[in-house]
Write a structure and sequence with these properties.
The protein is mostly helical and 157 residues long. Helices cover 75% and strands 0% of the residues. The protein contains 5 helices and no strands.
Length: 157
C-alpha cells in the first residue's frame, strides 16, 4: 500500500472548504439554521486520533525490533487502512470546518461567539485527526528490504 499523498490531502481539504461554505450558504439562503458542530465532535475526533496512534504503536515497536511479539499481518493492514482513513477524513473535515468558519466570519452580522468557538474546536479536532492518521501510517511503514530490486536500483543511481 502506498503512503497518503499530499495532493490527496490538499484536494480533500479544498473540497471540504468549498462544500462546507456552500452548504452553509445554501442553508442560510433557504432560511434554515446554519450548521454549528456540537462539543462532542472535537472530543470524538481527538479520541479516534488517540486510538489510531495507540493501535499503531505496537506495530512500530515490532518493526523497530523492540518487541519480540509477532504482529498479525492482517491486523497490521487493518490498522494501516484505519490510519489512512483517519488522515483522509481528517483532511476533509478540516476543510469543511474552515469553510464553515469562512462563512461565519464573512457574514455582516457575526454569530454568537459560541458558534465560532465550537466550529474552531471542531476544526482543531479534525486537524488532530489528520495528523494522528499520518503519524499512525508512518508508524506502520516497513523499512526497505536489502534484496528489494527497486531499492537496489534506486541506490545504485
Amino acid at each position: 500500500m502506498k503512503r497518503t499523498r499530499p495532493t490527496s490531502l490538499i484536494g480533500l481539504g479544498v473540497l471540504g472548504v468549498v462544500v462546507g461554505f456552500l452548504i452553509e450558504l445554501a442553508a442560510s439562503g433557504m432560511g434554515i439554521a446554519v450548521f454549528v458542530p456540537s462539543l462532542t465532535l472535537p472530543i470524538t475526533l481527538v479520541a479516534v486520533a488517540i486510538i489510531v496512534v495507540a493501535f499503531a504503536i505496537p506495530i512500530r515497536r515490532a518493526v523497530r525490533g523492540r518487541s519480540s511479539r509477532r504482529i498479525d499481518p492482517f491486523q497490521a493492514m487493518r490498522i494501516v487502512v484505519f490510519a489512512k482513513a483517519c488522515g483522509l477524513s481528517g483532511a476533509l473535515l478540516t476543510g469543511a470546518g474552515i469553510g464553515i468558519l469562512l462563512y461565519l466570519l464573512t457574514r455582516e452580522v457575526l454569530p454568537a461567539s459560541n458558534a465560532l468557538l465550537l466550529t474552531a474546536l471542531g476544526t482543531t479536532g479534525a486537524i488532530i485527526l489528520l495528523v494522528a492518521g499520518l503519524i499512525a501510517e508512518f508508524f506502520c511503514t516497513l523499512p526497505p528490504d536489502d534484496d528489494d530490486p527497486e531499492t537496489a536500483r534506486a541506490s545504485s543511481h
